[in-house]
Design goal:
Helix content: 55-70%
Order of helices and strands: HHHEHEEEHEHEHH
Number of domains: 3
Largest sheet: 6 strands, mixed
Shape: elongated
CATH superfamily of the largest domain: TTHA1528-like
Oligomer: single chain
Structural class: alpha/beta
Radius of gyration: 49 Å
Low-confidence stretches: 1-9
CATH topology of the largest domain: hypothetical protein tt1805
């Protein structure tokens, strides 16, 4: 509505004028608030697909495009969150693993300290309490496999073994048998009544197992052998028995194992070809 300047400005005309001005202002305001436009080129196939989807969803093509764009960004946001959660879970798992390692290290340290205390107690209190003298004779079990198991347990349990002396003597029920002298920092132990021998295949397997265990625990390198048959010492007092054995020349068992094994037989040619050749070779 245009108001001419020469027209009489009545109250109705002024009210009508202001009404139309307000309508125009509101329209301009709404136009200024319209979302920005983006011109996008798409293929004919995509355009048809958008039209079909808009018809199915009962909305305009513009609304269909906006809805699909908003949904795609929403899915992307979910992926980002999932990635964040995955990273957080990895971090949590890593921290849990680290804590388990710390706990395992603490447990191992406690166990090592416990073993160190037991070791100290064994050396300072237990051995002196059960050993009447510094030279102790070990009792036999009356079976070769029993003596083998007892000696292996003894080698593992006694601390600070610095030397082992092995010898071949006359046996009781066999032609030959073994004698052991074990040295540690405070005591000497002698086992000179064991019937262990290598004259038969099962008995040889027991002696081989004992020597292999000595090798595993690092004691074969401090083991020496007397390369001549020795006399019976079980009827002597332990100190005298050890002195008698020490009067014989000895050599490291490594490099001399075959010569030592031959002492079990009256003639060297009696060493059987079906011995555990490869196993003994590894120890020699």
């Amino acid at each position: 509505m245009i108001v001419k300047c020469n027209q009489l400005a009545t109250i109705d005309n002024i009210v009508a004028f202001h009404y139309h001005v307000n309508i125009i202002n509101k329209c301009c305001h709404l136009m200024s608030k319209r979302p920005p436009q983006i011109n996008v080129r798409v293929s004919e196939e995509l355009k048809e697909a958008l039209h079909d989807a808009a018809n199915v969803n009962s909305r305009s093509v513009n609304s269909e495009i906006v809805s699909r764009l908003e949904k795609s960004f929403g899915d992307e946001s979910i992926d980002v969150d999932s990635g964040g959660n995955g990273l957080a879970k990895q971090l949590q798992d890593s921290l849990l693993k680290q804590q388990r390692l710390i706990d395992a290290h603490r447990t191992m340290t406690e166990q090592m300290q416990f073993m160190a205390d037991k070791y100290s107690s064994l050396v300072r209190h237990v051995l002196p309490a059960i050993c009447e003298s510094e030279v102790v004779r070990l009792q036999r079990t009356f079976t070769t496999y029993g003596d083998k198991d007892r000696l292996i347990a003894f080698f593992k349990a006694i601390p600070d073994i610095s030397r082992i002396l092995v010898a071949v003597r006359d046996g009781h029920s066999n032609y030959s048998a073994m004698t052991f002298v074990i040295y540690n920092e405070s005591h000497i132990f002698i086992a000179d009544a064991t019937p262990m021998t290598v004259e038969r295949l099962p008995r040889e397997a027991e002696v081989l197992e004992l020597f292999e265990e000595l090798d595993r625990v690092g004691l074969l390198d401090v083991t020496e052998c007397i390369l001549s048959r020795v006399e019976q010492t079980k009827d002597l007092i332990p100190e005298k028995a050890v002195n008698t054995l020490e009067n014989n020349d000895s050599r490291p068992i490594r490099g001399n194992i075959y010569e030592f094994l031959s002492l079990f037989f009256s003639e060297p040619e009696q060493v059987k070809p079906d011995w555990f050749v490869d196993e003994w070779k590894k120890l020699n």
